[in-house]
Structures are given as C-alpha cells and as structure tokens.
Design a protein that fits this description.
CATH class of the largest domain: Alpha Beta
Helix content: 25-40%
CATH superfamily of the largest domain: FAD/NAD(P)-binding domain
Bound molecules: flavin-adenine dinucleotide
Structural class: alpha/beta
Strand content: 25-35%
Order of helices and strands: EHEEHHEHEHEEHEEEEEEEEEHEEEH
CATH topology of the largest domain: FAD/NAD(P)-binding domain
Length: 370
C-alpha cells in the first residue's frame, strides 16, 4: 500500500509555519525544523500591519493584488486558528492614516492618492483637521492625510503562537533548536535534508522557508535557491497609555505607529543594508522616534518597553517566491520582504494547495520560482 508523502519544512517563521499547518490540516505528515524557536526570525519582530493599500509602491501592482487577496483570507484564517487555539491574534480593523507633516509630503500623498484611485483602491482624502477628528493625537503640523479603511493589523507575536499551536493540534511535528544545514539531492533526486548535528531526515517533499537565511543552505545546484538578502529593521515599543496615544495605524513619512490592544505601541522601522548585524543603533532609533514624534507628539512622554531589530528576507525582484523548483519535491516559500505578515494566509493556502494537489492556484502564478 502506498504511504502518504512526508513533508519537511525548514524554518518556523510565518512563511514556513503557515504552509506546514495547512498541510497538516489536510492530514499530511509534516515535520518542521526550526533553528531557534518559532518566530525567532523576522516573524515575531514585525509590526503586524496588513496594509496592501498603504504599502503599495508605483511598480508593485502584482504584489498589491496578492496582498489584497491575502487580506481577504484573514477572516477565514482567524476562524480556522480559532478551531484549535484560544490565542487571540488581535485583529484590528480601524484602518490606517497616512499623514503628511509638510507641504512636500502633502504633494507626495496627493500623487499617491491619484495612484490609489487609478487602481480602484479604497482611500479617502482628509484635511488636517478631519484627520485629527479621527485621531486627536495627531500633531497640528499634519496638514493632509489619506485614510485607508481596508488596511488592518494583527499582533505577530500572538499569531506565531497561535499558528504553532494550530500546527501541533493538526498533528504536525515541531523540532525547535534544530537547524538544517543541507538539502540532500542525489543524481537530481530529492532525498531529504541533513541537520547541523549530522542527522539525515528523509522526506518526499522539502519546503525551504528559512527567511533571510535561506541562501545559507548547502547541497543544492547553483540557481535553485534565489538570492535573498537581509534588510534590517529597528523597532521601538512604548506604552500606549490611557487613553491611548493613537487608535489607528499611523504612517508618517519617516516612521509608523501600530497600537496593540495589550497596551503596546510599536514604532518602526528602518530599512538598512547591514548584513546580519543584529545590533540596534542610536541613529536608527533616533530616526524612527523623530519621525513618529513629528506626527504624534504625545509619544514624547511614553515609557519605553522594548526594542529590537529584525531581518526582512528580500529577493532581487522585491517580491515573494512561492512554489515548486526545478527539483521534484523541493518547494520555496521565501522573499516575503516587508509583507510576510499580510501575505501569510495566501502563502499558506497557496503553497499547501500546490503541494497537496500538484497545481498552484492562479494567484501565485506571478510568484512561482523561475
Ligand atoms: C521590523 C520589521 C517590521 C515588519 N513589519 C511588517 C508588517 O507590519 N507587515 C508585514 O506584512 N510584514 C512585516 N515585516 C515583514 C515580515 O516580518 C517578514 O516578511 C516575515 O516575517 C518573513 O517570514 P519568514 O518566515 O520568511 O522569515 P522569518 O520569520 O525570518 O523565519 C525564518 C525562520 O527560519 C529559521 N532558520 C534560519 N535558518 C534555518 C536553518 N538552517 N534551519 C532551520 N531553521 C532556520 C529562523 O530561525 C527563522 O525562525 C516586518 C519585518 C521587520 C523586520
């Protein structure tokens, strides 16, 4: 009797854990290997903004559409998580305010507004005082704003925890403190992977989802793993206070503020090319604090709770790469860059469907490995 295929996933961030959970949910045998602990990479360090509209840049329309699709999947995603875990991922739907603090910013936002309209995105223009009615903590300097009511947010730390619990409840096997060193391919055929402690793990399918570290895996022929580099982001967490300093996600020209229901206010983030240097810098923190303070002066007295850096996994095309490779049984879930949290459901459902049925859903077409 044929046995069910075995699936090994390398990396316990959202890009690995999501497909792993969905595959286990389909009754497949899935084992996830994580070098550290789940979410230890970028996934627990993100702000959790689900903001395809606010994030859209002028050349990234395919990414925008994937983000929108994924955002629409969030209610189903949350329902499915709720079937097996009590962890509330703090899904908040107040929307996002993108604010201008001087005339140049206002011009730039006006340009962005026209682009949003051309793409038929839900967005409203607000004068400074209209924006302050929605968010009284905004500086009097805010002279213009865009409101994107469809951009939501979650708490990534809680989501990773919920996903890990759901994965285990679905019958998945999790090995933390277990780094993979090599994908084993013999005469072009996938055999499995080797762990850093030397153990060989046989698997019919392997999913590479090691975030910014994916390129460090050995054993694969040149060109199979795409180039993915770490782009460092610094984050500062302060007390939100009572009444809260802000209730919406605020995106200012040089920083964003994301309020969480547990009383934290996340202030981020830099985009730095510093390799894997994990250290915070005075300049990075200064820039995000100054950028946040310009838009929301009330943060001046907020108590500091935490701060960290994280490495966004960024591909050359600045978009995720999700799907089968030229090696039968080897799949990628890498390169999610600034958007891994919003793209979590689309990645998980899409890759699980691809592996389980042999066919990728249409929406993944632009993101398949080439
Ligand atoms: C400061 C910051 C703010 C962000 N804000 C947002 C946001 O608001 N919205 C949004 O959508 N996205 C945001 N992002 C982006 C998002 O966090 C990432 O796109 C996403 O977490 C990437 O997930 P991943 O699973 O690919 O990588 P990671 O979360 O980095 O996971 C990779 C995992 O692989 C493990 N690993 C590495 N090598 C090995 C190995 N050899 N063997 C086994 N395991 C290994 C690592 O320990 C790690 O846990 C932000 C990122 C940062 C840094």
């Amino acid at each position: 009797m044929p046995t069910d295929p075995t699936i090994a996933v390398i990396g316990g961030g959202v890009a690995g854990l999501g497909p792993a959970w969905q595959l286990a949910r389909r009754g497949l045998s899935v084992t996830l290997f994580e070098r550290d602990h789940v979410g230890a990479g970028a996934s627990r360090r993100a702000a959790g903004m689900l903001a395809p509209t606010a994030e859209v840049t002028f050349e990234e329309v395919e990414l925008l559409r994937l983000g929108q699709q994924s955002l629409q999947m969030y209610p189903r995603w949350i329902d499915e998580l709720g079937e097996t875990t009590d962890v509330d991922i703090d899904y908040r739907r107040e929307g996002t305010l993108i604010v201008a603090v001087d005339r140049d910013d206002a011009e730039a936002l006006e340009h962005l507004y026209r682009y949003h309209r051309r793409l038929d995105l839900p967005v409203q223009r607000l004068l400074g005082e209209e924006a302050r009615k929605l968010e009284p903590g905004l500086s009097p300097r805010v002279n213009y704003a865009l409101f994107t009511p469809g951009d939501h947010q979650i708490d990534p730390i809680r989501m990773v925890q919920a996903m890990a619990e759901a994965f285990l409840s679905a019958g998945g096997t999790l090995h933390e403190n277990s780094a993979a060193s090599e994908v084993i391919v013999t005469d072009g055929a996938l055999e499995g992977l080797r762990l850093e402690d030397g153990r060989l793990i046989e698997a019919d399918h392997v999913v590479v989802a090691a975030g910014a570290w994916s390129g460090q895996l050995e054993g694969l022929p040149a060109g199979v793993l795409p180039h993915v580099r770490p782009v460092r982001g610094q984050m500062l967490v302060v007390e939100l206070g009572e009444p809260p300093i802000v209730e919406h996600v605020i995106r200012a020209p040089d920083a964003y503020l994301a309020p969480k229901s547990d009383g934290r206010l996340l202030i981020g983030s830099t985009m730095e090319e510093r390799g894997f240097d994990p250290r915070l810098t005075a300049g990075g923190l200064y820039d995000i604090l100054d950028g946040a303070w310009e838009a929301v002066p009330g943060i001046y007295d907020a108590h500091v709770l935490d701060m960290w850096t994280g490495f966004r996994p960024v591909s050359l095309a600045n978009q995720p790469i999700i799907g089968p490779t030229s090696i039968d049984g080897l799949f990628l879930s890498v390169g999610h860059g600034r958007n891994g949290i919003v793209l979590t459901p689309a990645t998980a459902y899409g890759l699980a469907e691809t592996i389980a049925t042999g066919r990728a859903p249409d929406y993944l077409e632009p993101f398949l490995p080439r």
